[in-house]
Design a protein that fits this description.
mainly alpha
Length: 89
């Protein structure tokens, strides 16, 4: 009756390894996509900030613009991870 017990241990180990491998690959791709989106958004916002009029440039300093870019992109990337986590689990 317990002759097949080692077979079940091997099967369980193989399945656990497959799940761990696919899970790490999934999160790698999620983080890679988030980084690409953040980079593209930062670039687009920066290009837009270069086209601001002189009146608008007086309203915000360069540091404030960079801070806004950083905060907005970080919120988007965190939101992307949160949605991916909810969808996956």
């Amino acid at each position: 009756m317990y002759v097949h017990f080692p077979i079940f241990q091997v099967m369980f180990s193989v399945v656990a390894l497959a799940v761990a491998t696919s899970d790490s690959g999934y999160w790698y791709r999620v983080n890679l996509i988030g980084l690409r989106v953040r980079s593209a958004l930062s670039s687009a916002i920066y290009r837009k900030s270069l086209r601001l009029s002189n009146g608008a440039r007086k309203k915000y300093t360069a540091g404030e613009i960079v801070n806004l870019i950083s905060v907005d992109c970080q919120k988007l990337q965190v939101g992307h991870r949160t949605r991916a986590k909810k969808k996956y689990f």
